[in-house]
Each structure stands twice: as structure tokens, then as C-alpha cells.
Design brief:
Layout lengths: L2 H4 L16 H17 L7 H12 L6 E7 L5 E9 L9 H11 L3 E7 L9 H15 L4 E8 L3 E3 L7
Parallel strand pairs: 3-4
Antiparallel strand pairs: 1-2, 1-3, 4-5
Helix pairs in contact: 2-3
GO molecular function: metal ion binding; metallopeptidase activity
Keywords: Hydrolase, Metal-binding, Metalloprotease, Protease, Zinc
Organism: Aliidiomarina haloalkalitolerans
Length: 164
């Protein structure tokens, strides 16, 4: 067997369902598959992987959802947690609950995410203020804030825009 044959990628897995799935169910299943794949050792170092994962998780919610990706010191996913739920244009965010989740999981880094049900992913002034508050709170316990992703029709990364 040649070296090339040994390094060839595995064929993609096939998935079968016994019933029709709604769009919401399909996106939920896709996010579970991606989460499972990433939880088994791949670090969340690629911004596009993070954006795809969060788009599957949050893009189709009809109300605002604020979530956190809790990561270990190698930036591998420990847990994805939806923490706060709001209305069509706002969700309350409490730093105390974020810190509690970080301590419970022994996370070394986080990525924040929330959706804009309007579809417009542009961060608001309130989004920027809450990110600053959360980053300051986590800095006091030596936990890295890697990014805050806003999900709409597109995704916006605070880190890519230099907002962190």
C-alpha cells in the first residue's frame, strides 16, 4: 500500500432518519454533530469553524439567546451553554452566572455568542458594553475571553474587528 493510500481521508458517514425533520431540527442535529466532532480533540482555533458552529446553534432562534463556549487551556470545547434568553431584540446578561459556569467547568477560556433575530449581525453599543464588562470580570480570575460572535444572516467577530 502506498503512503498516499494510508493518508487518504475516511469516507464521509451516512446518516438516516426515519421521519421528516423541520429546518430547526436539522440545524440542531448538524450543530450536535459538529459539537461532537470538536469535543473529541479539535481546538476552536479556526474562526470559520467557530462561526459555523454558532450559526447552527443560534441563527434560527426567534428570540435573543446569549451563550458561552467554555474551553479548556488548549481551546477545546468543554461545553456549550445557552445562559440567557430574551426578547426579539435584547437579553439580560449577568457576569455572575458566566463566572459560575466557568468555575463549574474549570474553563480556561471562553467565546461569547448571541444572536440577533432581526438578522442584522452588527454589534450594538449595548453588545460592546456587556462584552467589556464580561471580559473585565473574567480577567480577574485569569480566564481568557477569545471572542464574542454575533449571529444574524452573517456573523460578526469582535476579535476580527479589534473590539476585544
Amino acid at each position: 500500500m502506498s503512503n498516499q493510500e494510508n493518508n487518504s481521508p475516511k469516507p464521509p458517514k451516512n446518516y438516516v432518519t426515519t421521519r421528516r425533520l423541520t429546518e430547526q431540527e436539522l440545524f440542531h442535529r448538524a450543530s450536535e454533530l459538529l459539537e461532537d466532532k470538536l469535543a473529541r480533540g479539535q481546538a476552536f482555533c479556526n474562526p470559520n469553524t467557530v462561526k459555523d458552529f454558532l450559526r447552527f446553534k443560534l441563527a434560527h432562534s426567534e428570540r435573543e439567546v446569549f451563550a458561552v463556549m467554555l474551553l479548556d487551556s488548549q481551546h477545546q470545547l468543554i461545553e456549550f451553554r445557552e445562559l440567557f434568553y430574551g426578547t426579539i431584540n435584547a437579553a439580560p446578561v449577568y457576569p455572575r452566572e458566566i463566572i459560575k459556569a466557568v468555575v463549574e467547568t474549570n474553563a480556561a477560556a471562553v467565546i461569547f455568542a448571541h444572536n440577533h433575530p432581526s438578522g442584522v449581525a452588527e454589534p450594538s453599543d449595548a453588545d460592546k458594553r456587556v462584552t467589556d464588562r464580561l471580559k473585565t470580570a473574567l480577567d480577574t480570575i485569569d480566564v481568557q475571553t477569545l471572542d464574542h460572535i454575533v449571529v444574524g444572516k452573517d456573523t460578526v467577530s469582535f476579535a476580527e474587528r479589534g473590539l476585544l
